[in-house]
Amino acid sequence: MTSGAGAPGPVGPSAASTGAAARLRPHPSASLILVDRSSSICRILVGRRGSGHVFMPDLYVVPGGRRDPRDHALPFARDLHPQVLARLQRDGRRLLSAASARALALAAARELLEETGLGLSAGPAQAPDLSCLRYIARAVTPPGAPRRFDNRFFAAFIDECSIDDRQMKDSDELTDLRWLAIDALETVKMPEILLAVLGDLKKSLESDRSLPFGSDVCVYTNRNGAFLRRRL
User: pLDDT tens for residues 97-119?
Assistant: First the structure.
């Protein structure tokens, strides 16, 4: 998509477009952080978003995306851990139904498969196993961004969810897929919010490498331009 840089007009966005961006409601979305703990230093799967993307172009991110209506009806092999499902349902001002909370996890699993070729199952045609997912963070895009998301971050260990990284492949959404040491995040360009989430995940793994299902969930928001972080 071109920006029309050669056309006459104001340099910055118009007041109308700025106001419209500020009024955007965050869309529910989900991301999945795959963790390889086979060595002393855990590694995270990341990929680079293309320069043509409106949201976070040319940045390294973890697989994820917007929750679709169809995610509510997707099959699954095993359900979320009860503690994970309960936290997802009660992490906001209103109680989510079990189906809506589960759809977030299913969206994360679907995006992982679409963006990397990796599935949370023993085979590409099988329903995902959600029982290995930990719910670790929630982040809401600040007002004014061209896209806004109310994103839940899940984490999963590849040794618990039958991940075969020989199936890994680039996609239209993510390229240059790589396993990045969690203590070397500064070697690629990442969004600040993802750095914050992964930084807190690193501390949690240092505290308990099993990352218990009932661990605290970090919530990241922005109020009047100030970055806020709290734990559920």
Answer: 999 999 999 999 999 999 999 99
Report if residue 198 sits inside a domain. Answer: yes
Tell me if 97 is assigned to some domain. yes
Could you give the CA distance from residue 116 to residue 132 in angstroms, rounded to a whole number?
A: 18
- Residue type (1 letter), 135: Y
Alpha carbon dihedral 191, 69, 100, 205, in 10-degree steps, equals -30
User: Pairing between strand 149-157 and 27-36?
Assistant: parallel
* pLDDT(35) > 90: yes
Helix then strand then coil, % of the chain, to nearest 5 = 30, 25, 45
Residue 162's alpha-carbon distances to 129, 156, 202, 225, in angstroms, are: 9, 11, 22, 42
Give me the CATH number covering residue 45.
3.90.79.10
> What stretches of the chain show up as alpha helix (H) in DSSP?
15-22, 82-89, 98-116, 192-207
Nearest to 142 by CA among 15, 59, 24: 24
Question: What are the tokens at 98?
Answer: 């079990």
Can you give the pTM of this predicted structure? 0.87
Question: Taking a C-beta distance cutoff of 8 angstroms, is the pair 126, 77 a contact?
Answer: yes
| Number of domains the chain is built from | 1
For 168-207, write each residue's pLDDT tens digit.
999 999 999 999 999 999 999 999 999 999 999 999 999 9
Range of the domain at 44: 31-231
